[in-house]
Amino acid sequence: MTYCLGIRLNAGMVFLSDSRTNAGMDQVGTFRKMIIYEKPGDRFMVMLSAGNLSVSQSIRELLQVQSLKDGHGDQPLTIWNAVSMFDVARVLGATVRSVNNDDGDALQKAGIEFNPALILGGQIRGEAMRMFLVYSAGNFIEATRETCYLQIGESKYGKPVLDRLIAPTVPLDTAAKCALVSMDSTLQANLSVGLPLDLLVYREGLLQSNQIVCIDEDNPYFQMVHKTWGRRLKEVFDTMEDPCWEGGTAGHPIRTASSRYEPMRKISNPTEKIV
Amino acid sequence: MTYCLGIRLNAGMVFLSDSRTNAGMDQVGTFRKMIIYEKPGDRFMVMLSAGNLSVSQSIRELLQVQSLKDGHGDQPLTIWNAVSMFDVARVLGATVRSVNNDDGDALQKAGIEFNPALILGGQIRGEAMRMFLVYSAGNFIEATRETCYLQIGESKYGKPVLDRLIAPTVPLDTAAKCALVSMDSTLQANLSVGLPLDLLVYREGLLQSNQIVCIDEDNPYFQMVHKTWGRRLKEVFDTMEDPCWEGGTAGHPIRTASSRYEPMRKISNPTEKIV
Lengths: 275, 275
Hints:
- The structure is a homodimer.
- Chain A has one domain: 4-Layer Sandwich (Glutamine Phosphoribosylpyrophosphate, subunit 1, domain 1), CATH 3.60.20.
- Helices cover about 30% and strands about 25% of the residues of chain A.
- Chain A has five helices and 13 strands.
- At the A-B interface, strand 5, helix 3, helix 4, strand 11 and strand 12 of A face strand 5, helix 3, helix 4, strand 11 and strand 12 of B.
């Protein structure tokens, strides 16, 4: 499994990926899932990948040379000459389909699903930042203001904290912190997600980033997040009133006079049936 | 889908279930998933169910009359005469198998999976409280001191908060509060989990419970949990330091001198390959 996360904010973008791959519990490896495609001053693009590792690596490699016949001009379209991130996502979609054409049948015969999922975010000079999630069929969706983050792989454990805290107006470093909390919950729940992490923070308009770090178990900031979040969560939880069953003076009774339904009970006589 | 949760603590047990069933987005219903089997002063048992509704309802009904030939005595074993919760779980397993025998083939032909999952917890006079998770094959596992809660259905969204806060020594009402937080996160993330909820708190040794409530959207306590948890979580999050990229005086730098790995970068020239 894998957990990768991309967040597109007004101020920039945050990318975070784990690095565990496995083929069964007894065959675990470390392969990083973030790659940067960069033309300094012109374009800065980041891709995160989930799914079968051979497929991801092929896509990552071929994406650099993939070209697409395009109605817009004479030149074939590549990620290096595209004038929009939308077109870059189309090239990535074509790359996914091309790997499926080459390997899909043989994988299927071997009982291996062709299941890549990719997050691609970036900025080309003259265009706004954009972020896409590309599926195994090469189709894709884009992050929007309403849903400004995209996840691939083991997405569920880390989703509640994102839903509660992430919005387009959140500052970049705050979003990076939130991404790490989301990853921390996932690391604890799923053994197939593992350290080290790759974290990249991109500031709108820069067309480059030097806020990139590989986070392992010794990283002081990630250690602090891990310890503090758990402890503080417990403190907050403890300050929230417990349910009070007997009414009295509690401001928020759990039992109210007009409960909509009675509990379903079956009392002792084994020959009688539930109505 | 469904989300049901059972917690076995030193002080007692907590059970919580949602009530949404669906056959596609356009066919949504309310069916409650908690049932109490009770012989006052002798035994108190609670069952939560997930999976195909027709299967769950059949299991619930037949469990009352299911009997099992047993090596222990002349009388066939039932949930009403069993002397241990382990034997009750065996009767439930036999009930699951019996419904599979009756309906499994026809369901399979109709493309419907036989997929019940059941949490069964309770206490029989003279025995400690016990809680089991019964699978579709009728086999089962028991909650222990190390893993004192069991979930069925949509378990992932609500798991991190349980892992951080639940232990056998937690008081009953605190565990009930935690269960509601776990459910709240799940309700927000998965439309196929829905109100009203059934919450039951059982105190060790009582062989009965009057702490049972059906919680709908107007419940003052659940409203408080929903609002307070989200707000306080944000406050805690805000007090945790953001990552500081430039080192300086920050106690927990995110960037360290000896980063284990460099980022994977591919810079511009499209004819060159990644090494």
